[in-house]
Design goal:
Length: 191
């Protein structure tokens, strides 16, 4: 369907971005990176263009994703989804650069997303992922107090995922958290 959408809407940055993200998620990195080059050089015009462009850029072009998602937020300031993805992009960029202060911007975006998307599973998994990333980075940087605060926040989020029984993303995110932070006995209970 996405391939057909791109064929029917060849100028749609949103359609191209969704197809690129799908290629990455199904294990076609060559197609993803080929499309990412095109997406990175194509300006968006609509909220959807900027949002989905940012979604496609998050993992391998996080700074560009921050730019795209900031454009999306400028067009629709109440988009919790845009804040959620921008928190991912900012946290990846902060880890890549080792910039502890930059991680604070990721936290702020995650909190705005939580406020705009109350009770949404994706927001809980995003918040947990950002806090877990931060905890590992802070540990590497020797910032024990900040590591402990992020681990506590991630632990709270992991416990909250129990409110979503039977949801694969809740179980997968919780299992990754428990595996990373030594609550492996609880990981077994999750499955």
């Amino acid at each position: 369907l996405l391939t057909r959408a791109v064929q029917q809407l060849p100028d749609s940055v949103a359609a191209q971005s969704l197809l690129a993200a799908a290629h990455l998620n199904i294990g076609s990195p060559d197609r993803y990176f080929k499309m990412l080059k095109v997406i990175n050089s194509t300006p968006g015009t609509t909220f959807e263009d900027h949002l989905f462009k940012g979604v496609a850029q998050v993992r391998y072009a996080p700074l560009k994703a921050v730019e795209s998602l900031t454009e999306a937020i400028g067009l629709r300031p109440n988009s919790g989804t845009a804040y959620m993805y921008r928190s991912h992009a900012r946290s990846i960029s902060a880890v890549d650069s080792g910039d502890a202060d930059a991680m604070e911007l990721a936290f702020k975006d995650a909190e705005v997303a939580r406020m705009l998307l109350p009770g949404y599973l994706g927001e809980w998994t995003a918040h947990l992922t950002v806090q877990a990333r931060a905890a590992r980075m802070f540990e590497r940087l020797g910032l024990t107090d900040r590591r402990n605060a992020s681990r506590a926040a991630a632990s709270h989020d992991a416990d909250a995922l129990k409110e979503f029984p039977g949801r694969h993303s809740a179980h997968a995110t919780g299992a990754r958290y428990f595996d990373s932070f030594g609550r492996a006995g609880e990981e077994a209970d999750e499955w």
